[in-house]
Amino acid sequence: MTASTRRELAEFLSSRRRQLSPAAVGLPAGANRRTPGLRREEVALLAGVSHTWYTWLEQGRDIRPSRQVIDALARTLRLTTAEREYVLRLSGNEPFRGDGGLEAMPAHVQRLMDALGSSPAYAITSSWSIVGWNRAYERLYPGVAELAEADRNLLWVVFTDPAVRRLLGDWTTDSRRFLAQFRAEVGPRLADPEVVDLVTRLQAASPAFREGWASHDVDRFTSTERRFEHPVAGTLVLEHHQLTPADAAGLQLVVYTAAEADSAGKLARLSS
User: Fold this and answer.
1) What is the average pLDDT score of the chain?
2) Which of 37-46, 183-192, 193-202 has the weakest average pLDDT?
3) Which of 54, 74, 225, 252 shows the smallest number of beta carbons within 10 Å?
4) Which range marks the domain in which residue 242 is found?
């Protein structure tokens, strides 16, 4: 565990402890609580670890919690599946697969996206840099081709590009979901220069990002319907999918398919 991952683990556990009410774990609320949520000693007792050791963990001390301890804390803090996976990765109890030295968009992956026809698709690295897209995605979001390379990052455009804000049918919900998924992916690599630079720039550029980042929310990706308000095609209801090529470590393909006949027709006309 690096210093940055210890700090992130400490802050994440502390944020979840403060959000959990005593009543949720069968404890009396009491009248002398000065701060919301559980006390450290209560978490330690419920998880079966010493108060001192858990305090050290929340202080970011150089200790290595076992998988069994992380599982006990996850149960105590009522962590979601995504949150449990996050703390497992932060504590070094699950392997992390990064880009594997990916420097360029593989030609065969680009051909795969091109073959998707009117279904918009793009490819991102593990730091969410957009490294490739098909014609249909460029018609959905024309600005992608005009971005400077340093700004061609999914999280950056979601929080800073007014065109993307208008395009997303529910920007508030979608942006927070993107942010929670991004944090879940990059948590073990928060000290990487690329991640540090992106987060620093976004904190300076977007109050909404600053607020969301401070919440320490994490979530796993699930395929779902998304609504877009396109300036030419109008309302599009699309299913959002994410795929990982077996031979391109760290690369993720994001594909949108029409969720209804009306949207399928609009995509076909938009891509023609």
Assistant:
1) 90
2) 183-192
3) 225
4) 107-271
> Do 118 and 207 belong to one domain?
yes
Read off the tokens for 54. 């858990």
* pTM (2 d.p.): 0.77
Residue 56: give its domain's CATH number.
1.10.260.40
Between CA 259 and CA 245 the distance in angstroms is 23
Beta bridge partners of 132: 123
Q: Are 129 and 167 found together in one domain?
A: yes
Q: How far apart are CA 85 and CA 241, in angstroms?
A: 20
pLDDT of residue 97: 53
Residues 267, 214: one domain?
yes
In the chain, which ranges are continuous DSSP H helix?
3-19, 40-47, 51-58, 67-76, 81-90, 107-114, 135-140, 154-160, 162-167, 171-186, 193-205, 207-214, 261-271
pLDDT per residue as tens digits for the range 55-74 = 999 999 998 888 889 999 99
Tokens (6 digits) for 143: 């600005």
Residues 40 and 150 in one domain: no
Residue owning tokens 């630079």: 197
Judged against a pLDDT cut of 90, whether residue 104 lies above it is answered with no
